[in-house]
Design goal:
Elements (H helix, E strand, L loop, with lengths): L2 H14 L8 H21 L5 H8 L4 H9 L4 H7 L4 H21 L5 H19 L7
Helix pairs in contact: 1-7, 2-6, 3-6, 6-7
Length: 138
């Protein structure tokens, strides 16, 4: 499995377990409309990150290389450090990608606005914690 996808799925699973409060449909509709405006502006201002952005920001040569290093017990932060890359850029890239996923889920009605806000609030800290954690033990 692609290490980026594996990391994103694990992080999304943690983020989705947060927040369970509901709001009225009027609040959700107005929030969704505002969110669509923000998303449209962001999309116009910057292109969506590609698969290669993950490797480039991490300073890795291939998905297989990252996968092997993760399996050997290294964290994404350690891989970035080894490749003389800034892990904060990786966290920012993933935060942006996860924010887009949360926006999509909100706009599709899969989560409430309260859940969206709750998950968004904790997103960067979860990604930071996850980037510094080792998940595989040799």
């Amino acid at each position: 499995m692609n290490p980026k996808r594996m990391f994103m799925i694990a992080t999304l699973a943690v983020a989705l377990t947060l927040g369970s409060l509901g709001t009225s449909s009027d609040t959700r509709a107005s929030a969704a409309a505002e969110l669509m405006n923000v998303a449209d502006r962001a999309e116009a201002e910057s292109p969506v990150a590609s698969e290669d952005d993950f490797l480039q920001v991490l300073g890795a040569s291939s998905d297989d290389d990252v996968y092997e290093q993760l399996q050997s017990g290294m964290s994404l932060a350690a891989i970035a450090d080894r490749n003389q890359s800034d892990v904060r850029q990786l966290i920012q890239l993933q935060t942006t990608q996860m924010q887009q996923l949360l926006q999509d889920r909100l706009l599709q009605g899969q989560i409430s606005f309260a859940e969206y806000e709750s998950q968004l609030e904790e997103l960067e800290s979860l990604l930071t914690e996850s980037a510094h954690a080792s998940y595989f033990v040799p």
